[in-house]
């Protein structure tokens, strides 16, 4: 007898009979059980481990959503395929890519279901996520695909939101003083929390007119955008930290007083000052002077048609001031050193900084 066990749940007896008949050819690969309601499905799950459940989403008493939630809680290693007559190819692709379950749209070819079953049983780590990875977008899809009338209450930290469904459409969302689409988009961006499903709750009003597929895909797009932005900000923060380390190391060398990077408008982006000079030199105070100096250099360049400026050095009795343009990133570098540091050493260190800065962008 095969080790793998598959359970099919649908309230249409003709359909479960047809599925059992056509899938009997795979009896050497898995054993198949069919039932016609959610209660019987739960009875089967208590008797022996089931590798895969295939369930209709819209059933009396215990819906496919209720069944999925109980599987999530009590049988986290059981995979789930949802059968529904209310899908769309775009949302189906998105669900199969993101979610903890896959779904197949009725009417389907039996060979399509057969291949989905065989693939599911061969995958060792579940689909694109175990049922234990059940997330909010999955819950929303289930309510919509099942054409349910529910209120989905979601709590995240101290925030409480409610998404109202009417015959499978998302018709109203509340989040504090927010409501409608923007409240929905905010809730779907939450990365964690707790939820409860209140069945057969009538929405107090209808503030959302978009179809659920459009609404859900837009919410997921915004979620991706926000996550990518956060990842980009983390990357920028790490790059900035790396650059700051380079500046700190330079002022630790003997004779270097100040090293700073300014943006195109003359505001200091990063800076570091030698400890012994910190009380005497303020980068914020000298920033306007440095900006004026850079402007004067640009004026000389244009008046004399000298081309793009690269670097500029000023030598004084007690030290050196050096400016270098980081043209590719639209920034420029200031180095202040005492008379013990040669201009050739300053220029060499500036070139090294420029290369490292470009590498960290």
User: Could you state the oligomeric state of the chains shown?
Assistant: single chain
> Helix and strand string, N-terminal first?
EHEHEHEHEHHEEEEHEHEEHEEEH
Radius of gyration: 32 Å
The backbone outline, from C-alpha atoms, is elongated
Please state the average pLDDT score. 83
Largest sheet: 5 strands, parallel
User: So, the CATH homologous superfamily of the largest domain?
Assistant: Response regulator
Low-confidence stretches: 125-133
Q: Strand arrangement, largest sheet?
A: 2-1-3-4-5
- Identify the CATH architecture of the largest domain: 3-Layer(aba) Sandwich
Number of continuous helical runs: 10
Describe the structure.
Helix content is 42%, strand content 25%. The chain is elongated, with a radius of gyration of 32 Å. It has 2 domains: 1-134, 3-Layer(aba) Sandwich (Rossmann fold), CATH 3.40.50.2300; 234-359, Beta-Lactamase. It is built from 10 helices and 15 strands. It is α/β, with parallel strands linked by helices and 361 residues long. Strand 6 (150-156) and strand 7 form a beta hairpin. It has a 5-stranded parallel β-sheet, sandwiched between helices. Strands 9-8-7-6-10 form a 5-stranded antiparallel β-sheet, covered by helices on one side. The protein has a 5-stranded antiparallel β-sheet with strand order 12-11-15-14-13, sandwiched between helices. Helix 8 packs antiparallel against helix 10 (343-359). The relative contact order is 0.07. The two termini are 60 Å apart.
